[in-house]
Amino acid sequence: MNIKEKIINSAKKGEKSIIASAILTLVVGLMLAIYPGDTLSIITKVIGGCLIAYGVLQVINYFKDAKENRIGSASFALGIILFAIGLYIIVNDSALTNVITTIIGLLICVKSVYKIQLAISLKDYSKTWKYNLVSGIIILSIGLIVVFYPNATAQTVLRIIGIALIVSSVYEIIESLILIKKIDTTVKDLPFKEKGE
After folding, report:
1. pTM beyond 0.70
2. DSSP code of 65?
3. For the chain, which residues score pLDDT lower than 50?
4. Which of 17, 72, 89, 142 has a Cα at 20 to 30 A from 194?
């Protein structure tokens, strides 16, 4: 595999990763835009349910263990604590709204930083890298707003974020599909020299 083929494969792999993450972001955006409050409530309840289930498993495993293995085991205590936290989250799902909002913001930031990194990496191989960079910076800005102002991220703001995520995700998918289609021609036209030439 020569240098051009490696660049093409690497670029396509990166763009396919962006498409996959854009689809996930699109789904999150649709849910936030249509059902902002319910979406956060569902997420918190799912987390609470998972903690309860894991806590119960820890308690069950504790009693399944041989008596000698229970000495010094923290499974029972851990199980009870996780169960209590999970139950509290389900009963008071609004208490974790800020935490969930912050986590969503952090995920958006991570995704956008990856997009910016890929855009900078492709600037010598694609004319569309600037659009990737701009959309990455916009999404990063949204993520930072969510992270630093979780209290202000009420249903209206969540709905706006959802719409923004929908638009940016659709744009990313279209942009990545175009780049994947054109990358072969673009890279093959570059004046690379193989080692030994």
Report:
1. no
2. S
3. 196
4. 17
